[in-house]
Amino acid sequence: MVGVFEVGAVPFNPDGWGPPDSTTATAPSTTTTLPLHVPFAPFSRSEKLGRIADFTRSFANANPSNRPSSGKPGAASSESPFDFSLDLDTFPLANPEDDSSFRLVDAKPPTRPKFGPKWRFNQHRPQLPQRRDEEVEARKREAEKERARRDRLYNLNRSNQNQQRREAAIFKSSVDIQPEWNMLDQIPFSTFSKLSFSVPEPEDLLLCGALEYYDRSFDRITPKNERRLERFKNRNFFKVTTTDDPVIRRLANEDKATVFATDTILATLMCAPRSVYSWDIVIQRVGNKLFFDKRDGSQLDLLSVHETSQEPLPEAKDDINSAYSLSVEAAYINQNFSQQVLVRDGNKVSFDEPNPFANEGDEVASVAYRYRRWKLDNDMYLIARCEVQSVVEVNNQKSFLTLNALNEFDPKYSGVDWRQKLETQRGAVLATELKNNANKLAKWTAQSILASADLMKLGYVSRVHPRDHFNHVILGVVGYKPRDFAAQINLNTANMWGIVKSIVDLCMKLNEGKYVLVKDPSKPQVRIYEVPADAFENDYVEEPLPEEEQVQPPAEDTEAGEPNGTTNDVEAKETETQT
């Protein structure tokens, strides 16, 4: 049996569109099955269609405002014409089962899966509905930028305050400027950066001393198999100035050159733009010759530590981490390290003459002096005494080595713990040292280049304990070719010689006499003073400096017959510091 679908009678409206006002007026005899007194809900085409009629909505929950009670499509408003109750028995179309089967279509795009670390932390958090407003987000971004800008300004001001406080506390002049000294000229470091001068290859005039072979086993040292730093109290180390060198005196009498200096003094001049601490060099013009000297007990005999670092060091001079104490400790470490990494089996490489500063029978440290001559001009030559500390045999050829040691005193100042980072992040350790000790590393590189060393060895030496400044351990040794390392630290050889040539030309224009070149303690510049002929001599009386301004203690008396500075001054100063 096929069911018949009966369609109710549709009244005709002759007056227009839509149903007539009264179905009884147009078709009185027609019976209808449509519910009576049910109005139509007005809507516009722009509105979203939801439910046609909500018969389950109670009148008591009507929203008294004119706005919809919910922003979702299909929600009834207070103006809805269906705000009354119907009898479900008389109106069978309003069936709750039909209403329960009705579902709204969600037009939102499906949520994309989140991956990465944020998803792992946010997957268990309840996701609350948030309003994504572009204006609010823009305000948040502006606030973050402003906060970051304030943080940068705060950190910058704080670092500047630390730098100013450090300069006021530690950066004192290396020599006391006397009232009778006459300042002739001052040269800012900015002029040094533009200088350039090329010199031909030097010639060796004389080699003195004897060298021991380097022990290659030290190249395999790591922080896990560190070695204790030994002390060599019986070996003599010599820090002789230019005019006290008998070989240089002999070469000067033979008119071999016009300018005379040592590698330490030349390296100080070459790397002057990188220096922060004050230093001084004595210049003597004798006839047509020029001698660059250092004072007894000069700052050049010691090694600076954390010179170019922004972290302030303790101000008290007797503190083991003060600038003076660290410089004495660094010189002590450097001397002992240069002798410990040798093969001490008595096998030495001897040269033309023995050590010119040692007495017969003295135990001398392994060192060789190369007296080399460079041509600065057609009629101007420069002779310098250069040092190498060891020799190694490579491919049946002997290669010269320079030995130096970097020292770690407290990791909290450098920010890098060598025992943890040296084996896995050696580049980061070297980069930190280049930032904190740029001048010292540049001077060591310049000295290696002047001596034409084939290799420069850098040792990493640390304290056994941060508060023990007398016992140390070797954590590693690394070798570099001097010219390759110079390129790595941006040290230009032509600029180095340009600085020396400009200072030599300036001093050659001066009259005969004694002068001193002083690095300003607070400004990047050097000054030239004319001093009396007896300045810095034993009978020269200077005004005493306050205790807190003294950079160096008075030079100790040396034994008769020895040049000044030939005794082991560094160990004596180290003992004095410990006391």
From TrEMBL:
GO biological process: cap-dependent translational initiation; formation of cytoplasmic translation initiation complex
Gene Ontology CC entries for this record: eukaryotic 43S preinitiation complex; eukaryotic 48S preinitiation complex; eukaryotic translation initiation factor 3 complex
Domain of life: Eukaryota
UniProt region (RNA gate), positions on chain: 299-313
Stretches with biased composition (Basic and acidic residues): 130-149, 570-579
Compositionally skewed regions (Low complexity) per UniProt: 22-33
One Pfam family matching this protein: eIF-3_zeta
Protein family membership: Belongs to the eIF-3 subunit D family.
The protein's assembly and partners: Component of the eukaryotic translation initiation factor 3 (eIF-3) complex.
Recorded domain comment: The RNA gate region regulates mRNA cap recognition to prevent promiscuous mRNA-binding before assembly of eif3d into the full eukaryotic translation initiation factor 3 (eIF-3) complex.
Name of the protein: Eukaryotic translation initiation factor 3 subunit D
Organism of origin: Gossypium darwinii (Darwin's cotton)
